[in-house]
Structures are given as C-alpha cells and as structure tokens.
Design brief:
The complex is a heterodimer. Chain A is α/β, with parallel strands linked by helices. Chain A is built from five helices and five strands. Helices cover 39% and strands 14% of the residues of chain A. Chain A starts with a helix and ends with a helix. The mean pLDDT of chain A is 87. Chain B has one domain. In chain B, 70% of the residues lie in helices and 0% in strands. Chain B is built from twelve helices and no strands. Chain B has helices spanning 4-15, 20-41, 51-60, 72-92, 106-127, 131-163, 171-181, 191-205, 216-219, 230-254, 263-288, 294-317. The mean pLDDT of chain B is 85. The chains are: A alpha/beta, B mainly alpha. Chain A binds chain B through residues 5-10, 12-13, 37, 40, 42-45, 48-51, 53-54, 56, 78, 80-82, 143, 146, and chain B through 35, 39, 42-48, 51, 53-58, 60-65, 132, 216-217, 219-221, 224-229, 232.
Chain lengths: 148, 320
C-alpha cells in the first residue's frame, strides 16, 4: 500500500538538476523558460534542485568538453537511485556544430545511459516539457522495478 | 497518578492528535497552501496543494547516500531529533480551548524546544563534512541569533501583559486571560509585538527573504547539501511542521480565547487561522521579495523587529 503511494509520488514530484557541459547557454535559457510563469513546469511538481543529491532527473546540455567531462561523470555518480538522464538539445546527442573539434568528448551516450533525448538547437519549451514528463514516467517505472 | 488510561492518553497526545500525526498533516497542508498561493501571486497555476506530500513520499523511496566523511549516527539522527521536538511543541500550544499538557512555564519550554530543529539542522549539516554545509550552518547560526532576540522580547511582552504585575509563562493562563479580556491582538499596546512576531515566523521557518542558510542557488541548500532520500524528506517535513508550530504559536499568543468548546471544531478554526497567518506572513513576503544578505538580515532583526517588540514591552511595562 505504502509502496504504491511512493511509486505514484515518483511521477508527481520529479526534481531537476541541470548540468551545463559547455553549452552556448541557449538550451539553458529555454530550460529556465519552462520553469517561468508562462509554461510553469511546477504544476507537474518539477522543481530545480540545488544539488545532485536531491535530484531525480539530470538534464545535461552542451557537447561535453574535455574540461567538463570529469565533472559530469562525478556529478552523475552522486545522484541517488532511481534517476533519469535527459540530454537537452542537439549538442549532447551528436556534438552539433562542434562535431570533430579537438576539445569535444561527446556524445553523452558514451558515458551514461540516456533515458530521454530532446533534439533541437534549441528545443522549444513545449518539447522540453514533454521530454521531462516522459522522463518522470520512466522514473516511475524505475521506482516500481526497484527491490524493496 | 500514572495509571494505564493516563499513559494511553499521553501516547495518543504524542502520536496522534496534537502530536506527530496531526502536526505533520497540517504542516504539509500549510506548505502546500503556501506554494499554491505564491504560484497564484506570480500568475502561475502552481502545484496541487498535496504536492509537499508527494515530495515527502518520493523522498522516502529514494536511495539514502551517506557520505564517506560523515558521522553516520549524527547524520541520520539529526532529522529525527528535530521531528520529535517539533511534535512535542504542539502538546504545549493550546488549540483554542484544548491543551494536551499544561504547566506553569510552558512558554520557556516552547522557547527551548523551538530552537532544537534549528540546532538539529546545524548538527546534521556539520556532520555531513561538506564545505557548502559549513557556510550554511554558520549562516543558520547567525539567523537563529537574529530572530531569537525579538522572539524573546515578544514572549516577555505577552507574559507581562497577561500577568499584570508579574510575569505569566503558562499558555493556559494566557488563553484564559484572552477568553476573559479579548484577544491580545486587539489590545493596541500589543500590536507592535504582533507585527514583530509575524516577522519572526518566516525567519524561524526559513522561507524566501530569510532563507540565507538554505540558499539553493548560491550554496546548494546549505546544511542539506549532502542529504538524500528519507533523511532529506524528514528535514523537509520538519520545515513544514515548523510552519504550523510557529503560526500556531502566533494564533495561541495573539488570537487565543476564541474557542467554542468542541475540540474538533476548535481544531478546525485553529487550522484555518494558521492558514491565514501563513498566507499573510510567509506567502505574501515570499512572493514579493528576493533573498537578503546575511548581514542585512541580522541588522533588520536587531533594529526594526527587535525595536517593534521592545516598543510593545515598554508600553506594557508602563501598564498600558
């Protein structure tokens, strides 16, 4: 009974942690736009967490520069289970316009399992919202699969 | 004296009605109302009112990571100590006519018990071994020093006003005095103290302009930086319960003596007044202000708020 309530709550209160791995700031602005009064992601319970320890969904933007790779891996390792990784924009998917650069160590799939990938340069806030909601549903499935 | 019925009654008081269950349920309700009202003031739809309950349940289902540098016992024990002390405070606060436990110096007990959740946050944060928590706990300590002075002055003013010549620290006597002479809020010499108390509430709870200790955008939620899973959920629940305890204390001190005699109805009226107090002094201030710096917070409390409380105290001491 309690387990069912807890599983349902995983869908209703996903907290986001955002990592910028060398992004141009475009996707970051659009992610913040999702939390503003116009789109108001808080109505689904989304909240921006201050530290990876509080996060459920990790949103990664940027093409993963050599400098940020180490920090990215360390941050991802600090997030408690169950967790979801969302790649935001085209950069973590493919490298985008930075592909082939000596300082890029992407794509993100090389290092971690990506649950939801939102494409676009930059993606629209509506698309980000849908991606985050899908991530929350995956979070619930992961929570249900967890052994008590 | 201590027969089996008394013990069962006491257990019921501690675990269910004014204690743990009731306090956490109303606390989560108040936290939800706060988030909804702030959202509506910012022209948003906002989360549902049961959102804090979802947050708490979700955190129960998360993995609890204990950092390598942490002292395990203190790290996990701190939120539980805070929870117990908050559940205990509600026993002393009269819910209109009904008081679970009453003594001759309730106010002093409440004053001490109410610092324990803050101290638990400091102890838990410092045991986690994170530098962010270090900054957070130093700010939490300064915040506590800042609001304790006006808080004590307000309590003294109330005690002197009720006692006439002497100081009365019994919550039941305060409630009885208000039932006979009208609520303290309607005595003009107590209005500055009530204002000071309304400003002490958000600092004690740690909401927006006064959340310097848990500033999530600059120091990653300060003392809570390393917490995850159930202990974090318990700390979030403590914050929600603190909202109820502080608004309940305001209601008992300044709007007491309005009871109807039926406990269930009294509790309902009490919760409604608490909700109004939370909307007035937590949500409204949260929606219109940005976070203060720690030195500005300290200055604000020791000049403006303490000044208001002192004004009331002087007026009361002059017999007004």
């Amino acid at each position: 009974m309690l387990k069912k309530f807890i599983d349902d709550s995983a869908l209703k209160s996903p907290w986001i942690y955002h990592i910028n791995t060398g992004s141009c700031n475009g996707c970051d602005i659009e992610l913040v736009a999702v939390l503003t009064p116009r789109y108001d992601a808080e109505r689904f319970g989304f909240k921006l967490a201050g530290t990876p320890r509080h996060a459920d969904i990790v949103v990664v933007s940027g093409p993963i520069t050599s400098q940020s790779k180490e920090r990215l891996l360390r941050t991802l390792a600090q997030v408690p289970e169950p967790k979801c990784v969302v790649s935001l924009g085209s950069c973590p998917r493919s490298g985008n316009v930075f592909k082939g650069s000596y300082s890029i160590e992407g794509p993100l799939e090389k290092y971690v399992h990506v649950d939801v990938s939102v494409a676009g340069c930059t993606p629209k806030p509506e698309a980000i919202m849908e991606g985050l909601y899908k991530a929350a549903q995956i979070l619930k499935e992961k929570r249900e699969a967890m052994k008590k | 004296m201590l027969n089996i019925t008394n013990i069962l009654m006491l257990l019921f008081f501690v675990l269910v009605f004014p204690g743990a269950l009731f306090t956490s349920a109303v606390g989560l309700w108040l936290a939800g109302v706060d988030r909804k009202v702030v959202a509506r003031m910012q022209h948003r739809i906002g989360p549902p009112i049961r959102q804090p309950l979802y947050d708490f349940l979700k955190l129960l289902g998360k993995e609890t990571i204990i950092p390598h540098a942490a002292n395990k016992t203190v790290y996990l024990g701190a939120p539980i100590v805070g929870f117990i002390s908050l559940a205990m405070i509600m026993l002393f606060i009269p819910i209109m006519g009904f008081t679970a436990v009453s003594g001759s110096a309730d106010l002093i007990v409440i004053l001490y018990l109410i610092t324990i959740p803050g101290v638990a946050l400091i102890v838990g944060g410092s045991s986690s071994g994170s530098p962010y928590a270090g900054i957070g706990i130093s700010r939490e300590m300064v915040t506590m020093m800042a609001y304790e002075l006006p808080f004590v002055l307000v309590l003294l003013a109330v005690a002197r006003k009720v006692g006439g010549g002497a100081l009365v620290f019994s919550m039941q006597d305060i409630a009885a005095w208000q039932a006979a002479n009208g609520s303290l809020l309607f005595h003009w010499s107590m209005i500055p103290a009530a204002l000071a108390m309304l400003l002490v509430v958000p600092a004690e709870v740690g909401t927006q302009p006064f959340d310097v200790a848990e500033a999530e955008t600059e120091i990653c939620e300060g003392p809570l930086v390393e917490y995850s899973g159930a202990p974090l959920g318990l700390f979030k629940l403590n914050t929600a319960m603190k909202m109820f305890v502080m608004s309940g204390l305001f209601t008992a001190l300044f709007l007491g003596g309005l009871g109807t005699g039926i406990v269930a109805l009294d509790a309902l009226i009490f919760v409604l007044i608490c909700t109004l107090v939370v909307i007035l002094c937590i949500s409204t201030i949260h929606a219109v202000t940005a976070r203060l710096k720690i030195e500005h917070l300290f200055k604000f409390y020791w000049t403006f708020v303490a000044g208001l409380a002192l004004l009331s105290l002087i007026l009361v001491w002059c017999g007004l």
